[in-house]
Amino acid sequence: MTSTERVELHGAAATTLMTLFLHRLDARARRPILGDPYAEDVYDRIDHDVHGLWQATGDATAIVCRAAVLDRWTREFLAGDPDGQVLHLGCGLDSRPLRVGAPPSCRWVDVDQPEVIDARTRLYDLPAHVVQVAGSLTGDDWWDAVDPERPTLAVAEGVFMYLPPRAVHATVERIASGTPRGEIAFDAVAPWTVAVTHWAPFFRALGTTFDWAWDPADFADRHPDLFARDDVSIYDEVILREPRIWLRPLLATAGLLPALQDSMRLHRFTVGP
Ligand SMILES: C[S@@+](CC[C@H](N)C(=O)[O-])C[C@H]1O[C@@H](n2cnc3c(N)ncnc32)[C@H](O)[C@@H]1O
């Protein structure tokens, strides 16, 4: 029998169990979208309080579409800069460095809160060039692990919405000014979703809410040196890839509403020359 690991996560840290659960759901599907080959084994080895994870299944397609696009952008960066650096911010229990085959020539830095990194190191057998950094993005310590000379991709999936706005902007600014060139890729939610997290039973049970939402004018104003390269609606990805094909026309009709179309978007910005 495989040994299990006791994992105690609360608040925003516990949301990584939700994404892992949804990756596992996708991996078990007849035609997976992400096809995370690690999710099932890792999830099944976790001994934890499930926190009603089943309540998140309605978001499964969106969550795995989000991961699939960010995997593609990560592979593209590493193909162009195999000696580059990937800052995997709020990495949670995601297998991305293994999934994208991070080459030994690169520097890969996984950053998350100490309790998450503790669980991550117990659940994954990660190679030496995939460095684990326990620290909060609201503080400074994690930055010591960053190589300021390497071209850098910062990939923050499902993270920035949990941070206070000033921490999001400080993190982006730090990467933009502290690395020679590269990219910043992240997802951002629409402002109306912040209110929803204050009453939705799933978030109440976890004890967390969204704090930061996308405001394009504010972001452009604060980060004038970043060049917007991609802006992808996750909702559009869901319409294209929803496994229940009969549901796609209904989703497409609902997607005419800007509130749904913009509920979560993926952004990729270029840093430097
Ligand atoms: C929804 S999970 C996403 C995990 C992973 N990126 C994925 O997509 O599977 C959110 C993650 O953000 C992390 N997080 C939230 N606030 C953070 C902070 N202040 N510093 C570092 N990580 C944080 C949580 O611990 C959690 O692992």
From TrEMBL:
Tree of life domain: Bacteria
Uppermost EC category: transferase
GO terms classed as biological process: methylation
EC number(s) on file: 2.1.1.-
InterPro entries, A to Z: Ppm1/Ppm2/Tcmp, SAM-dependent_MTases_sf, TcmP-like
Gene3D superfamilies on file: Vaccinia Virus protein VP39
Protein name: Class I SAM-dependent methyltransferase
